[in-house]
Amino acid sequence: MNKKKITLEYSVYNDDIKNIEDYSDENRYNNTDMPYPKLCKEAIKISDNAYSLYSGFSVGAAVLLEDDTIILGSNQENIAFPSGICAERTALSYAATTHPKTPVKALAIAAKQRGKLLQNPVSPCGSCRQVFAETITRFKKDFDIIMIGQDKTIIIKAGALLPLAFEF
Length: 168
What we know:
By secondary structure, the protein is of the alpha+beta class.
């Protein structure tokens, strides 16, 4: 038997702003070295475009490509569950369609419940994690996942979220 160990490394940025209405690029991460404030703002903003009639759980995703293009997506629910699609997969699919040769640098995720940003960051579902793994395989390059909450923002490599992904 050959034992192996899986470890995770991630960064946590504690927000100094407790009222999300005060959010802006200029002041959200004033006292941190958080590298993606604009991307986070875009993810929070696009979550308002989610179609979440059934759950009230609105998610926005903002993908930053290596050429600095930002692609946005939001979750789109469907009464015939599971026919909806997550914000992360919406944004990554659009990025792959419109910029098929440009690698992903980062993906920010923000979730709101009934219009209010969640206190803690939300983690991507298993299907999204597998799409992340496929994106890494496609470009042979890992990318950052930024999970945004009112109190903190977490940054982790996409590959760390599904360490035993389907592989060929």
